[in-house]
Fold:
Amino acid sequence: AQSVSQHNHHVILSEAASLELGCNYSYGGTVNLFWYVQYPGQHLQLLLKYFSGDPLVKGIKGFEAEFIKSKFSFNLRKPSVQWSDTAEYFCAVKDDGGSQGNLIFGKGTKLSVKP
Amino acid sequence: ETGVTQSPTHLIKTRGQQVTLRCSSQSGHNTVSWYQQALGQGPQFIFQYYREEENGRGNFPPRFSGLQFPNYSSELNVNALELDDSALYLCASSSPGGDSGANVLTFGAGSRLTVL
Structure:
């Protein structure tokens, strides 16, 4: 069965530090890849997505992610984090089977940014 | 445009009871998916409804059931509640033609269910 691994449970950074959150998936076929963010007290929001084309995708708020097919990875990056980036980040995968709404989520990485 | 709205936001039930959670999809979206998010876990797919029929299901028992109505709103019903059903239940809507892909989900804030 498809699975998604997020390597870090909790990451603590100071403002202006660089961020990289790891995400690996298990499915070897065609995939759609997503990063969702959940700010404290808010609902899940789409940060960025990869469907096809350029493997380096840019999302909102200065985030980007790189799809590396050979490594089954889709890591999230941001050059300089801000206190307002404190949130929980979820990587999700949709494979080419199953229904359109069936995303497989990782367990999430909680990011705490110290001012 | 309106987002996805869910009700109730919080509820407490006891083991063996039944619960109904409701979801109104985002304007223009005709597909609704339901997810269960246990504490410390990522959301887990329960099922999806399209054209008032279930057209995809995750690894959940039959006591989890749903409905979709002509206005695309949806209900999640859980019978014979168990302690492990305590979780945040998320509804997400999507549209096949929207946002350059069929799989971009818009989530609601969720309904937090506590089973005692």
Observations:
- The interface with chain A takes residues 3-4, 31-33, 35, 40-45, 48, 50, 55-56, 58, 90, 92, 94, 96, 100-110 of chain B (CB under 8 Å).
- Chain B has a mean pLDDT of 91.
